Amino acid sequence: MSPQEEMHYLLNQSTAVELSNDEQAQLLGKLTRLVQYLLDHHRPYLFAAVYRMDISEKMLKKALCSGSGETIALNIAALMLERQKQKMKWRQSYKKEPFSEG
User: Fold this and answer.
1) Is the N or the C terminus of the chain less surrounded, counting Cβ atoms within 10 Å?
2) Domain ranges of the chain
3) Which of 65, 77, 9, 66 has the alpha carbon at shortest distance from 37?
4) What is the tens place of the pLDDT at every residue in 25-38?
5) Percent helix, strand and coil across the chain, each rounded to 5?
6) pTM for the whole thing?
7) Is 88 helix (H, G, I), strand (E, B) or coil?
């Protein structure tokens, strides 16, 4: 699986079901390692993905200035997961009820 495919898989997994704290921590760890890899080898792809996720530039800059490489990767991964959660909450709140005749 390519790094891009793995990122999509992990982010989709984060919203597919309600995760326990341990599962969330494992997912964050996997995503952090992937973000670190992308920072080192495919930075343009990572920034494009962050842009498509609609993570604010201000939040991304804050994460990029947060310290060492590992801390930066962790903060970006956390931003990505939080944005996915926000999207799911938004979708749930605007979910259309099935049309019923009657």
Assistant:
1) C
2) 3-93
3) 77
4) 888 999 999 999 99
5) 75, 0, 25
6) 0.78
7) helix
